Amino acid sequence: MFFFRNICHIFVELRKKYIFNTLKHNQYEKNLLLRLCLIITVSFIIYSCRTDHLPEQETFNNSSAFQLTSKRISLSESKHKEKLVTELGKAEANFKVLSKINVNGRVIDYGNGVSIDTDDVAYIENGSDYHTYTFHITRENAPANAPIENLVLSPLPNGGYKALLISYLLSQQEKQIILNGGDVDTKGKSLVTDLGNGTFSDIMGKSQDCGYIEEKAYTICSENVHYHGETNCNADVKSQLITVYLWVCTDVNDGDGNTGGGHTGNNNGGGVDSGNPAGNTPTEPCNGNGVATEPVDPINNTGNGTCTGIPTDILLPHPNTVDPCKKTKASVTATDNLLKEQSISTEVQSLENHAANSFTEYGMAIINTGTTTIAQDPYTNNDPSNPGSVSITIPSVGDYIASAHTHPDHGAAPPSAKDFYQDLKDAKNHPTFQAGLVFANNGTKYAFVINDRAKVEAFLTTYPFEANTTDGGRIFNDSSLVGKDFLNIYENYMTGRLNDYSGNRQDDGLESAFTYILEKYDIGISLAKSDSNGNLKSLHSVSFEHTITASGGKKITGYKAQPCP
Fold this sequence. Notes:
Layout: H1 2-17, H2 23-62, E1 68-73, H3 81-98, E2 100-103, E3 106-109, E4 114-126, E5 131-139, E6 148-155, E7 161-168, H4 172-179, E8 190-194, E9 199-203, E10 210-218, E11 241-249, E12 310-312, H5 324-339, H6 345-357, E13 363-368, E14 373-375, E15 399-407, H7 417-429, E16 435-440, E17 445-450, H8 453-462, H9 465-468, E18 469-470, E19 475-476, H10 481-494, H11 505-520, E20 525-530, E21 536-547, E22 555-563
Parallel strand pairs: 15-16
Antiparallel strand pairs: 1-4, 2-3, 4-5, 5-6, 6-7, 7-8, 8-9, 10-11, 11-12, 13-14, 13-15, 16-17, 17-20, 18-19, 20-21, 21-22
């Protein structure tokens, strides 16, 4: 607009410099030029308005009624919460009926200890009339190499939900790729079980007439701009690759690696198109990804996979997203209650007296006889010249559930590296072992509490005692990965780079270093500490930015142990 106004002004000024014989003639020329400027200006305004509206028109024309979106929510945030609670109850009941299934030679027992995580749920929509929910399933004492198990709920026309149990047989490396936000090819590595009728669909290369096959599709980003996994997207929720299960009546694999290709719904005869290779916004039914657009039971359909696909996103428990306080609360509370049992109160009080007054360490084992809890009379069996250790003898009768020993005033109050590894070994060797306790001279009690025995065993295999400690196991080895992480935090407190928070830099350094490595390496145990009321509370690691004193402004990331609420 400014450009054309200047052009008009120039025209007028130029005409003034040329010869005009009469005022009338001058006026006529000026009016003519002004009319010309007005026409040009109005034309420009109309053109500008047209240009401004084109992008909106393009977006509207290219939008689709069925946009595949995915996000993470909790059950409490779901608008279908009441129905889902009922469906989850049905699923848990079906687990027990299902009892055991075999995934590629590995038997999975669903009879006991099965729980459904409702805090981290994958919610997927394909338009306003279709959605799915995916939940991660946790089993007690599952081995480290156990399959990843998800429960997928897809709405049915009758108002209920179809429940699919999907098991993924993935390596530790593949699990980590998924946790880091990467994509893993899961074809040939999953088993689908319909919990409604107990049918199985093994996608391990077996030949079937009808069954679920696995394909991929892209979601659209939260700003409705990208829909092919673009990496340059600035939306809060980016386009991502998800898994779609299609019920197809054809030979999945004839033994020679040939897929039947007998179903319709795509352009290549080899499964549903996984997204939009050309990068165009889809406008055909169900976005060209095979995902259902309304409640449907694929098994009651024609079995051609068209617009009946059930979308899901593989869910694993992410160490960084699981609240450490919530994860450890039950086990720490159980250990706290154990210490307060009346049947061992005499022994507990005796050990407290030894912690306050004895120069050598005392210890005892805590046993469950099946009918009651008992404890040994505290004793010491160490060399007086080496008062900083005690060997606890485990009785041959009853279940060994905990150990407890003292730390006199000539040593640090928190557990040592040797205590840490001894408790890990006890957890591995004794299935009933729950905690290793330390009664400190200052009245504080500490406990390494077992939360996940399988993770404990995995850590011991990867970071064995001999290779990761030194000086007889008293301290960590600075040449090992876990040792470097531990000592870096511990030495920050001991050298004064970080300020102590309790008045004792050694205790603060040990507490902070232990809580850090327990969470970073997801070891399967937690460190608890008694509060001012004598109750055990789990400690968790908190990071903060710290400027080192007299360093010229040098900043480091510090870590400290903080009690859970």
